[in-house]
Amino acid sequence: MSFTGVPLPYAVPNGATPENKPLIISDEDKENVRNGLVEALLNEHEKSVRDLLAETLHTIAIHDYPEKWPALLPNLMSVISQGNDPSQALRVHNALLAARKICKRYEYKAKDQRGPLNDIVNQLFPLILPLAQRLSDPNTHALEAALMLKQILKIFWSSTQFFLPTSGPVISPESIQPWFVVIRSVLAKPLPEANEGLEPAGQPTSVEDRNAWPWWKVKKWAVQIMSRLFSRYGMPSHAEDEVKNFALHFSAHVAPEFLGPIMETLNLRPSGKFCTDRVVHLCLSFVELAVQLAPTYKLMKPHLEFILYKVCFPTMCLTADDIDLFENDPHEFVHRQNSPMADYYDPRMTAISVMEGLVKYRGTEITENILTFLTDCLNRYSSTADPAQKNHIEKDGALLAFGELAEYLTKKKKYAPQLEGLLVSYVFPDFNSPIAFLRCRACWMVQRFSSISWTGDGVNLNALIQFVLQRLSDPALPVQIEASKVRTLFIILMHNKSRKYAITYGH
User: Residue 141: is it exposed, middle or buried by C-beta count within 10 angstroms (0-12/13-18/19+)?
Assistant: First the structure.
């Protein structure tokens, strides 16, 4: 009932139940709304309005597709079939966007509830594959092509990220191979720099605009698809029986085939070209998995120095933006450094994981090389007499790498006795460094190596405690926070040792 006492149109009359309440919109009106929505979406230029219409379609599809809306997919396919007509580019793109929303309807469904998605794949994939093959041509740089290709890859992602369709044009290695050719072409596609041609052919100039540039979005989706497939099917021993053959094919042929364009993409930044953080992150995720697989590691082995010292180490180091954030917005810096979501988007975390994976799975071949490189960085910093010439960022990166390997180093008899010397020689001086982020790193390093055994006289340990107490009143907030973590850690360790002593001797 309304405030005026007049029943609202959707109110349940007295004595009525929700099951028999009057319909708000008749079935005929619903059909008109659905048809009008599709037509409005197909012709919409404005992205914000288009996205709103697409979400509306997705919501209606959850309730009405396919039983009450059987004409939706055929209508969209009729528009997509005009993909070769440049005058229909907008409608084709918007139809692909709508098709992706339908696929998303079943993206997270259990395997036994994905029947309609299998039907969509059977009907839609043979239509969009030739379009994808044309759009991924190396000489095609039109933004309209990128936008359409991005939607096609998103359709593929929604249809395959959790389960391969149980029938149709994707399940067998032979039938899915043309899709791998398309994705590989996208990854290998060279993107023109801003000075190589006028937009839309050339990239924008600002980092923000480049990150939003459609062709980089296309590359992001391509490498995201391959990283997900690698994680699910790259290790045949972990694959389910029904996809075992596909996993064997993927690990033996597909993953090694993609390693080349992945490495070429990672070489963009060392070559002075641009690559988005997200693409670097996903490429390194692929490399992290490739370390574990024999066929891909065999191909990687001659290029390990490039991966570690040209890609991973520079990615681990602080950037100018990081330092600016540290100095001018320390609260945000602390938030980012401790964000639990960093593993899912930060290329720094993935670079660390690649290094840790190499040490874990290929330790006998690579560990000494890594430690030598990191020690050389620290020695170079210490031996540079002119403070203006010291590379603070390189030292911070070297300490970060050592700290991330702490668990491995403390468990190895070969390295454990040397760790106290590492801290005394290279970390202790940084507690009084004029560089704030090095003071912060020093406190972090103590946390990473808190379990080492200190020499019996306790001189170094006492000095460390004094350093940490001084940093509790550091002018830089991130340093204070890291120092407080160390103090808390010391309290816990001392409590545990006292408790262990009391239990052992009956006190």
Answer: buried
**490 Cβ neighbours under 8 A, 6+ residues apart:** 450, 465, 468
Which two tokens mark 145?
A: 């092509």
Mean pLDDT of the chain: 89
Instruction: Report helix, strand or coil for 427.
Output: helix
List the helix and strand counts (H, then E) for the chain: 26, 0
Please give the C-alpha separations between residue 442 and each of 134, 379, 399, in angstroms, as whole numbers.
54, 16, 8
Q: pLDDT tens-digit profile of 132-161?
A: 999 999 988 899 999 999 999 999 999 999
Q: Are 471 and 443 in contact (CB under 8 A)?
A: yes
CB 204 within 8 A of CB 210: yes
Nearest CA-CA partner of 370 in 346, 392, 390, 354: 354
CA nearest neighbour of 95 among 82, 113, 110, 109? 82
Using alpha carbons only, what angle is made at residue 317 by residues 214 and 391, rounded to the nearest 5 degrees?
A: 130
Q: Which of 366, 364, 433, 355 is nearest to 398 (CA)?
A: 355
- For residue range 329-387, list pLDDT tens digits in order: 999 999 998 888 877 889 999 999 999 999 999 988 899 999 999 999 999 999 999 99
pTM comes to 0.89
CA distance linking residue 498 with residue 507, whole number of Å? 10
- Give which of 371, 352, 203 is closest to 288, Cα–Cα: 352
- Residue 262 token pair: 């992945």
SS3 per residue for 143-167: HHHHHHHHHHHHHHHHHHCCCCCCC
Q: How confident is the model at residue 505 (pLDDT cuts 50, 70, 90)?
A: very low
478 close to 337: Cβ distance less than 8 angstroms: yes
Q: Which of 235, 246, 226 is nearest to 171 (CA)?
A: 246
Per-residue pLDDT tens over the stretch 52-110 = 999 999 999 999 999 999 999 999 999 999 999 999 999 999 999 999 999 999 999 88
Q: Are 258 and 252 in contact (CB under 8 A)?
A: no
The structure tokens 């052992």 sit at 504
Quick check: 105 and 58 in contact, CB under 8 A? Answer: yes
